[in-house]
């Protein structure tokens, strides 16, 4: 019997029991819809996480002066001030780098009127806001021109603004930092505390050149913060920077670096691991519902084989081989599961659109997930259809004919 | 005429738990090509069992069965299915039509398993139904047909693959006498066209259509009666 005929016979048999067929496929429908909705949701969530990670500086690197091995991170003993603004300019030219900001920091007393506050004073370039995805809430940030001229302009962190000005508008006011007067041109948005509890809004940002020349009287920078095109490029960017700085600092091949590159890659990895776990978890829930759906199909196929024992006997009496009966019932099971699969795909797409509407996540219904769900449904059909089909094909013709 | 069916010392034993039921106790019979044979005998004498073995639906416990000179016992399931499909047409007392398929679909069934293409199938099936006076009934379901019509559909199905043998197990058992006579005329015609017909019946006037009557009793052939052409249609004497 050729497959097309078998298909038609199966289709007709299923249509005869429309309600039962639909109820039977419900498990598969739900399973497939769940797979598609979940995969698209997790992919959407992953995209959101990646975006947020990028805006939080997930694809940024920090280059510190000093050697990692001798001094250790945060140990200033071996720290030589090896990084210069020219290093920063050279790094800017690398293919993978999008933004570069030299960074110097110190702590200073800031004063306005009779109020004063002791805070972190950080010198940066305008790229700083893009690298960290952290922008002024009021006013503006300083420009490259201000850096070039070492202007006396500052942008306040939220905490400093409220300590000095309370509810007053700080924009345009003049404050003193150390003994120098600065004009407040902006107030940063609030980004809150670090995981370790440090208030990141307790900060005043000024052009790094101003900090170098007018306050500290130095030519070096403490570190260089850069952002990389995409987080995937981070390892390559790290290698590029290392090679560039070794050349610029004339470090011989057997000598250690006099700088070290710090990445936030482990955070990224952690988040990717979490989203992978999420996918696996949701995937297994979906798989379980597909398996339950498959058992439903097996159950109804067994009922169908029993009900149609006489039909099987008649078919055998007129020349159906075991294989013909097997294929007929197998195709029936697969038609059932694939019909369920198709309905499930439609529902899954609708479901992911709905959940996208409520979560505001961009859900991605990928061709891959549709293919996955569909082939899963087919496999479930074959796997769970095999037993009833083989049971049907092994029937004894005489007994089948005599069955009431 | 050549021998189309030869059975020698055929035995069939059904195991029912501890009890052995001897349905056939050594049947020896030779049937020539083109013969029309009636099988008679009391209920439980093994007629249907014998017929099922002849039809390759069942296998004997022992004994030999040669169909067109080939020993059936050496064949596997697929080959037996093939014989049922091409060499033998079955007609049952209760018609055994697929109740959810139309007349023409029922007739097409053996063609499907013979790998005939769909357009040829419906053409052949239409012709067969026409031959049996069922034109216009192609799309009818068995429940929409009378008993005689259903049995004619079953006969159309039995002959669709042009088998040389037709096995009929009480074909008129569920029909009234007029319809039975119509049916026997069809069998007669098929026999004239060269088909070998073996028919089980309880009715002597139906058995009278055959050239030879074989009497079964307790799983054995008790008596054979050859009937001359002139005596055909005269009732067969009761056992
Ligand atoms: N599948 C089976 N299992 C056990 N015993 C069986 C089976 N089929 C038939 N028999 C027994 O074999 C014997 C012959 O049965 P069979 O059906 O061949 O009789 P029959 O001559 O066709 O009778 P009837 O005229 O009533 O149709 C009976 O005793 C019956 O009970
Ligand atoms: Mg019988």
Kindly report the spatial arrangement of strands forming the biggest sheet of chain A.
Answer: 2-3-8-5-7-6
Kindly state the number of beta strands of chain B.
10
| Helical stretch tally of chain A | 14
Mean pLDDT of chain B: 92
Shape call of chain A: elongated
Strand content of chain B: 25-35%
Can you walk through the features of this model?
The complex is a heterodimer of chains A (404) and B (239). Chain A is of the alpha+beta class and 404 residues long. Chain A has two domains: 3-52 and 270-402, no CATH class; 81-230, no CATH class. In chain A, 57% of the residues lie in helices and 17% in strands. Chain A contains 14 helices and ten strands. In chain A, strands 2-3-8-5-7-6 form a six-stranded mixed barrel. The radius of gyration of chain A is 34 Å and the shape is elongated. In chain B, strand 7, helix 6 (177-192) and strand 8 form a beta-alpha-beta unit. By secondary structure, chain B is of the alpha/beta class. At the A-B interface, helix 1, helix 11, helix 12 and helix 14 of A face helix 2 and helix 3 of B. The site of magnesium ion has 3 residues of chain B, from helix 1.
